[in-house]
Specification:
single chain; mainly alpha; globular
Length: about 350
């Protein structure tokens, strides 16, 4: 079996769970600090961008393999699977936030802002319509990234389902990336206006999702795989990509450079199963943290709040450690006692093929 055939036959990219671990911990650190920090210690939000890179690659690969195997993409089954994976826990946590806000938050701008934003959170449009430019914390504001993911699920699968080859999806995704880049660079202010819903909608396209989707399209094609394997297929490619990512973040490189190194890292651990980071990324602890990272993301702000109450005056490093352990514990309990039922149903809808999860 050739390298490309082996890649296409692989049912699971195990090291991506380890990358999810590397994604979620900086996010927990970011929310554990009393304020945004300067320098590399303030780059925790970039963990979400790595999540996006993983997601774009996996979802695109999943859909391409389904189309190759069955001759078509079943959108209904895809949305059932995605809904079962992300919606139950999302709405459970959102309901907890709403109940807590109703019972315990006193009348204040913070409370009024949350309940005014609740319809947008409930419809995965918070990244478009919630006002983040307020002088108080935005309750449930971290859900902007989950809205971005949901919008990607809504937009991208139909493109792949309606396309027979790879050229049209590649053109569409390149166009979306270019649109996002132009908006983020301020080139479309005259068209979209300075801020507002139109700008929010365009800039929510997410460059890492676009780039990693293009990576998946290229790797699915024999010639694309051959070319990328030259760059990403050595045992040293994954360590080199991770080193490049750390350097890009530490040196405050342009965001596009950071995103490209993230996508290269995802590709390096996917192209070659025995890559140079396998021993670390596939170890039990990183793999488990990555597996339950969706729950960690949804619960970690509440766990941080509880940790601050239990440990008043705790330093950011101590708070990070306590909150990380607590978030993993709560997410593991949720995964095994609540999410597992929905995941079993989703597995029946998936059938044989690539096994994957998002966040």
């Amino acid at each position: 079996m050739g390298a490309h055939e082996d890649y296409l036959a692989r049912a699971r990219f195990a090291s991506l769970d380890g990358l999810r671990c590397l994604s979620i911990l900086p996010v927990v650190w970011h929310h554990s600090t009393p304020r945004p920090l300067e320098g590399v210690l303030g780059k925790g939000p970039l963990g979400v961008h790595l999540f996006f890179a993983i997601s774009g690659f996996l979802i695109t690969t999943l859909l391409l393999r389904e189309r190759a195997r069955h001759g078509e993409v079943s959108l209904s089954r895809f949305y059932q699977r995605r809904g079962l994976r992300i919606a139950p826990l999302y709405y459970l946590v959102l309901g907890i936030y709403a109940l807590r806000g109703w019972l315990f938050l006193t009348d204040s701008p913070l409370r009024r802002h949350f309940f005014a934003s609740l319809p947008y959170y409930a419809t995965y449009t918070g990244n478009w319509f919630v006002d983040y430019a307020v002088p108080h914390p935005v309750v449930f504001g971290f859900s902007w990234s989950l809205a971005t993911e949901a919008q990607f699920y809504l937009l991208w699968p139909p493109v792949l389902a309606l396309s027979r080859g790879l050229a049209l999806p590649a053109a569409v995704m390149l166009g979306l990336f270019g649109l996002d880049f132009a908006a983020e660079s301020g080139w479309l202010v005259g068209v979209l206006g300075a801020g507002g819903a139109a700008t929010n909608i365009v800039t929510s396209l997410s460059a890492p999702i676009c780039l990693s989707s293009l990576l998946a399209l290229a790797l699915h094609h024999p010639k694309g795989f051959g070319g990328l394997r030259t760059l990403l297929g050595s045992a040293a490619s994954a360590p080199f990509a991770l080193t490049g990512l750390v350097a890009a973040v530490a040196l405050d490189a342009p965001l596009l450079v950071v995103h490209l190194t993230m996508v290269a890292l995802v590709g390096a651990v996917a192209v070659r199963e025995d890559h140079g980071l396998r021993r670390f990324l596939d170890a039990r602890a990183p793999s488990f943290i990555g597996e339950v990272s969706y729950g960690i993301y949804l619960f970690h702000v509440s766990v941080i709040t509880a940790s601050k109450w239990l440990l008043p005056g705790a330093s950011a490093p101590l708070l990070f450690v306590v909150a990380s352990l607590g978030s993993v514990a709560v997410a593991a309990l949720s995964y095994r006692s609540f999410e597992a039922w929905f995941l079993r149903v989703a597995a029946k809808l998936r059938g044989p093929g690539l096994r994957t999860s998002v966040l």
